[in-house]
Write a structure and sequence with these properties.
Serine Threonine Protein Phosphatase 5, Tetratricopeptide repeat, DNA Cyclobutane Dipyrimidine Photolyase, subunit A, domain 3, 6% strand, 18 helices
């Protein structure tokens, strides 16, 4: 994976079809192997497309289960649900994200006053630790914007338990460079490795495991920690009730806003045609530090592709804006086109949601409503993501039935998973 994958819906659908036809049958047995950036046929490589919703989770599940039974594709289906679980969990624990953002900002400032921390952090993010696998993953991440999921877990474990660096700075490093960087999946995965998401349960990178699953490319030996004491925190993050899905107003002209959170605007649950369409980017808001080139380019390409398809589908004009001042951008856009409402796909917890929340108050003063449309897929699954993943995992057959997704040649028995 030396070159950036094409950030388009067509490329995502093509990758999905190829994976289902050629690789899914051996996914469960080979998925944990990180053979290096040149050999990725054992994993789907769909995460950048799913993260930006260039292809939808429901489409992935539909396409998978049209050709494979649930039992034979179980591991892949569960991975799709893992991503949705993280999104739903974070949506109901937004204070975790707020705390993470504040911690990152504070720790970055602390680098200037703590020479020891600054040196160790610099060694880590420049691939100068002397741990061969870790340093190679730094280079791979910066060059390609991608790491195998197993490598991400090993990396986070080494960062936290060997290098003894704050997990928030590691999560920030990933988020700045990953082309599939997702606020929920990234933040909560790092917390899980650290023993914060599932309290007291850590993930420890083991040299023999790294050697085996990298096909002997790496063997860090005694250079990495052999124990992983769970991190602790004094703060408790309460469960927040999910907001009710918003409804598209029926009066007046509306404009359609496309963000990096939803690249399938033509498939949103809307009636009628927008008066105009705007694409806006929040990629620079991922961190106070610079965002990596692969992540920046992929996100820009994804939003541009979504905008192009939406303008063709609705047969209206559109424009792409890269300003960080969404309040004035949206207000001026609404005034220019005499819009009463701006409609966009629901933005889960993260920078896009932050930008929209800031803009909402400004728009309301101008008499413009901001409406975020939540997809039925999210509304069905997110309520099951209040605690650990396995609560949702047990309900997968039931959830598939709710979504009217049927597996090939298989009758799904949902009685044991009924809620």
């Amino acid at each position: 994976m030396n070159t950036l994958p094409e950030p388009s819906r067509n490329a995502g659908l093509s990758r999905l079809a190829s994976f289902i036809a050629q690789s899914l049958s051996h996914y469960s047995k080979s998925r944990n192997f990180d053979f290096g950036p040149e050999r990725r046929s054992n994993v789907s490589l769909l995460s950048p497309y799913i993260r930006h919703r260039l292809i939808l989770e429901r489409e992935v599940l539909d396409a998978t289960l049209q050709r494979h039974s649930l039992s034979s594709s179980k591991k892949f289906v569960e991975e799709v649900f893992w991503r949705t679980y993280f999104k739903g969990w974070m949506e109901q624990h937004p204070d975790v994200w707020i705390d993470y953002r504040a911690s990152v900002a504070g720790l970055i400032k602390a680098l200037d006053s703590n020479a020891n921390l600054k040196r160790r952090y610099a060694d880590a993010v420049t691939g100068g630790t002397g741990i061969d696998c870790f340093d190679a993953w730094v280079r791979e991440l910066e060059q390609t914007g991608y790491l195998h999921n197993h490598a991400r877990m090993w990396f986070a474990s080494i960062w936290i338990f060997t290098l003894r660096l704050p997990w928030q700075l590691g999560a920030d490093f990933f988020y700045r460079y990953l082309i599939d960087g997702d606020p929920a999946s990234n933040t909560l995965s790092w917390r899980w490795v650290a023993g914060l998401h599932t309290k007291g349960k850590t993930y420890l990178a083991v040299s023999s495991n790294i050697a085996r699953y990298t096909d002997r490319r790496f063997d860090p030996g005694q250079t990495i920690a052999t124990t992983a004491q769970p991190l602790t925190e004094s703060r408790v993050f309460p469960l927040r009730e999910l907001s009710q899905p918003e409804v598209l107003p029926t009066d007046g002209d509306y404009g359609l806003l496309i963000t990096e959170e939803d690249g399938c605007a033509e498939n949103l649950p809307i009636d009628g045609r927008p008066k105009t369409i705007l694409g806006a980017l929040a990629t620079r808001q991922r961190s106070p530090l610079a965002v990596g080139q692969p992540a920046t380019e992929f996100t820009l390409g994804a939003v541009a592709d979504a905008l192009r398809r939406a303008t063709q589908h609705f047969a209206v004009d559109g424009q792409l804006a890269e300003t960080e001042d969404w309040s004035n951008l949206l207000a001026e856009w609404a005034e220019q086109h005499q819009l009463k409402t701006i409609v966009t796909g629901h933005a889960p917890v993260g920078p896009v949601s932050e930008m929209l929340n800031i803009a909402r108050g400004h728009l309301e003063k101008k008499g413009v409503r901001l409406t975020q449309l939540r997809r039925p897929y999210d509304s069905v699954i997110w309520p099951h993501a209040t605690r650990g993943y396995f609560k949702l995992k047990a309900r997968i057959p039931h959830v598939l039935e709710q979504l009217d997704i049927k597996a090939a040649d298989e009758v799904v028995d949902t009685r044991s998973a009924a809620v």
